[in-house]
Structures are given as C-alpha cells and as structure tokens.
Amino acid sequence: NVYTPAQSTAASSSGDSSALPSCMGGGGHALHGGQVNGRGFAVGGALAGTLEILLFHPWDTSAKRLMVNSKPLVPIGRAFLQEIQAASVGIKTGKLNAATVSDMSACVTGAWRVILGDAAAPGTSASKRLSTLYPGAGYAMGYKACQRSYQYTAQPLLAAWLDQTGVFKEAFGGRERSYRHAVAGAMMGAGEVILLPLDSLKVRAQTGTLPRGDSLVTTLLSDGIKGAWRGVWWTAARNVVGSLTFFGGASLMKEHVLGLEEHSQTTWYENMYASSIGSFTSVLIASPFDVVKTRLQRQMKQVVAADTLRPSHTTIRTGMEIARDMWQTEGARAFFKGCIPRCCVVCPKLMFSYTMA
Hints:
It is a single chain. The protein has helices spanning about 5-15, 40-70, 80-95, 100-115, 125-130, 135-165, 165-170, 175-190, 195-205, 215-230, 230-255, 270-295, 320-330, 340-345, 345-355; strands at about 30, 35. By secondary structure, it is mainly α. The protein has a two-stranded antiparallel ribbon with strand order 1-2. Helix 1 packs across helix 6, helix 2 (about 40-70) crosses helix 6 (about 135-165) and helix 12 (about 270-295) packs across helix 15 (about 345-355). It is globular, with a radius of gyration of 22 Å. It starts with a helix and ends with a helix.
C-alpha cells in the first residue's frame, strides 16, 4: 500500500502519528519501492489547498481586516472583558442590562463595518458583500496550493529522517512519535517562508493596500526583494510556534485527557476533539506573531489611497516598532485581533480535511 495524501491530510490536521505510515512512526504503509510517495502528497495538497480557499477565504479575509484595524470596536470607557462578563451574567440571570446590549451591539456593528467596508451599508446585496471578501483569492489559491503541497511532502519526509536518527527514541522512548512529528512540523513551518511573496500579495489585496492590477513581478520591481519577504522572521516564528503548539496540544489531549496510550486506538470523534483543542491553542498562541506579521506585510513604498484600509506609509516600520506601538496605543488585546473568525472555522476546516481524506 502507498501512503496517500488523504492520510497525510488527517495526520497534518490532527497531529495524529497513527495516521502516518510505519516508516514515520505510524501504523500505515508508506513504502512504494522503498520511497515515500511524494507525488501523491503534492497533488493531494494542491487540490486540498485550492478547495480550501474557495470555502474558507472569506473567513481569512475577515480575520486579516480585523488584525490591521487599529480603532477600538468596543465603546470607549468599557473594557472588553467587562463587556463579556456583563453579557454572560445577564444571559445567566435572564436580565441583560440595556447599556450592555447597546455596547455589544455597537461592537458587532463596528466589526461588521471593518470587515465589509462600504459594503456594510444598508441595502447592499448579499452577493456584493460576499464578493468583497474574496480579494486576493487568485494569489491565495497559488499560495495555498504550494503551501499544502510543500507541507504534505516535507513533514512526512522530515519525520522519517528524524526517525532514522534515533534521537527521539533515545530521549522519549515509546512515546516519541508525537514529539518527533511536532518537531518535523516546526521545521517544515520554518521553511515555509519561501512562499512569503505570494502570501504578502494576498494580505495586501485583502486589506486594500495592493494597487489594482499589480502582480508579483510589478510588486517585486516597486517594493524590491526585501519588501517581498518583509516579515520573514515573524512569519517563521508564527509557523514554528503554531506547529509545535498544534501537534503538541493534540498529542497531550490524547494522552493525558482521553487517556490513550496508543494513538492508533483513536476514533474519528477523538481525533476531531483533540485536533480542535490543538488548533484553538495554536491560533491563540501564534496570534501575536500573526498580527504583527500581517501589519508588516501590508506596508508598501507606494500606496495610492489613504483611508482606514489603505494607510499611506512614508516609512517602513519594523516588527518591533509595530508591536511597541500596538502595546502603547491599543493594548494587549490588539495582539489577539482576528482570533474569533479564525477559531470559528477550526472545526469546519478539520471536517473538510477528513472529507477530502
């Protein structure tokens, strides 16, 4: 039997080493003439990445626009946690304070306007609103197809190489699979920065800083090689931290919460449960890096307009300057902007991966 992209999709989505082939520490069969079936990984990854954009790109656009928004959504004078606490108490007691309802409504309305822009105006058709959430879809398809092909090929190969070294078996004994695949995922994530120019174009299109008609070539000519890979270290940090947290979180849930000593015994429900917790944790832990990285990427030397979504950048700020400014002007919660739409699609994305598998 040849190890298929479907098995890789399940393993990458759940952090489950049992879905991986025997040469990588799992229970399947990965050998095809003694080699890992990399072609199958690449084709399956490209197909999964393309379909993923068609289904989930609006959620990603919503998250990116919330990340770059520097204006508070919650009315001035009320802290976000106070809003949530007041609403929670009101729901439990059945007595919602009018001020709380008004403030939370204003918060939702503010987020709606940030996400949709002019399309949030009353009377705008649903089709027009939906179309405003698909800018940069072409770049996103190219980026996601390359990303998934790379992930589904590199992670299993790295895991197999780490298995051959024997380092993890000596250090962790019989429970080395999860640690090995977590490290392989982190290594794979660090190398993913090679695709950063496509991701930058996607982010700029989503947040309104990419001039109409610009391509990868024109962006490279106007912004330079350095501009195309702007935010490379923040992207690498996000990928490494996110991958480690995702695989490690899912593994910990299986071993310490579900009490599974052998990952091959996990059911579909247990995989989904552990993977969801791992994904939620990964989103939250990697969010500060992701927000700074997104604000770094959207900076361009030449910007045509200047409004809430298209700021004019006379100087290109560094990641640390952006992070410091966020802390001083927006507070700690600014580093977690966009988490809600990202967390909302965790389970649907996992279900999609298993359906593809």
